Amino acid sequence: MNQRTVTIAKIKTGIVIDHIPSGKAYLISQVLGLNALARETGDIIAIGINFESPSMKKKDIIKVENLSLTRDMLNVVALIAPIATITRIEDGEVIEKHRVETPTRIGDIVLCPDRFCVTNHEQVPGKFDVVNKDPLMLKCYYCETEFFGPLIKYKEKN
Ligand SMILES: [Zn+2]
């Protein structure tokens, strides 16, 4: 097989999110607010789309310099890319590599699709149970609406 070798900017310190389903890197970047972060910090953010992968055929990759992921950020990645791997790099060395874990409950990172839900009318931060992991199905803690597929709308930061 003729494998193309494609490289993506090396980072000295930061994180690499690998094994993202192809086409999902941009959504992850939007929900994590990476554009705003890049503007703020001036750090490198590299988004690779449709890289060849033996296990996934095509995959996306995100590299972010000088970033560590918070719990909410990790949850976003796990929901959108359930088999993603996170690699932490410090001074050019891989210091940690792990697969994301789908949480059983998430915070205010998606919108409840029920327009009568309290979270859509008052300053109540959303809270959701993960009813099913793949395909992803969520249930609102407040109004108990269960939803999946295109009804899952992430709160985009930019
Ligand atoms: Zn709700």
List the helices and strands and how they pair.
Blueprint: E1 14-21, H1 25-32, H2 34-41, E2 45-53, E3 57-65, H3 71-80, E4 85-90, E5 93-99, E6 105-106, E7 110-111, E8 128-133, E9 136-140, E10 146-148, E11 153-154
Antiparallel strand pairs: 1-3, 1-4, 2-3, 4-5, 6-8, 7-11, 8-9, 9-10
Helix pairs in contact: 1-3
The chain binds zinc ion (ZN).
CA-to-CA gap between the ends?
Answer: 40 Å
Name the bound molecules: zinc ion
Total number of distinct structural domains:
2
- What is the element string, with H for helices and E for strands? EHHEEHEEEEEEEE
What's the CATH H-level homologous superfamily of the largest domain?
Answer: Aspartate carbamoyltransferase regulatory subunit, N-terminal domain
- Spatial strand order of the main sheet: 2-3-1-4-5
The biggest beta sheet reads: 5 strands, antiparallel
Mean pLDDT metric: 92
Approximately how much helix is present in the residues?
Answer: 10-25%
Level-1 CATH class name of the largest domain: Alpha Beta
Number of strands: 11
- Which range does the strand content fall in? 35-45%
Number of helices: 3
Shape: globular
Runs in which pLDDT lies below 50 for 5 or more consecutive residues are none
